[in-house]
Amino acid sequence: MSAVQQHDRDHWPPLRLRFAKRIGERSRAEWMSVFEGTDACVSPVLAPHEVGGHAHLAARRTYITRDGLLQPAPAPRFSATPAGVPAPAPAWSQDTHSLLLELGLKPSEIEALIHDGIVGGPPSI
To answer: Which domains does the chain have, with CATH numbers?
Structure first.
């Protein structure tokens, strides 16, 4: 295929097949070793459980572990004003009652919403 043909959409399906076949000839690890140390814009597609061990992501502190859970770090990150690690999310329906009170609902209205299953009630123990 010539450089001119690459812009012709009619040529894309066979080109896509050629790429897929060629990429399928090696594992992800093998391809990463091919591009290691080059200035090619290539990076692996990682599974969620792999991101914590990726050297580039670790160096940039892109992920943090909180309460044993790997999660994205706060962003953006500035050197002069670092962001704190946010508090864990509240338990399911932990704030329902107080939030609805703050929005102006009466306690009896809130209880009716909980009873009818429209909003979550206090967490089960």
So the answer is: 1-42 (no CATH), 46-79 (3.30.60.110), 87-125 (no CATH)
**H helices within 61-122, ranges in order?**
96-102, 107-115
Distance separating alpha carbons of residues 109 and 119, to the nearest angstrom: 11
Q: Which structure tokens are listed for 16?
A: 């896509």
Contact 54, 46 (CB under 8 A): yes
pTM for this prediction: 0.51
pLDDT tens column, 79-95 = 888 788 877 777 778 88
List, in order, residues 6 or more apart from 96 with CB less than 8 Å away. 110, 114, 119, 120, 121, 122
Q: So what's the pLDDT on residue 124?
A: 56
Are 51 and 70 a contacting pair, CB within 8 Å? Answer: yes
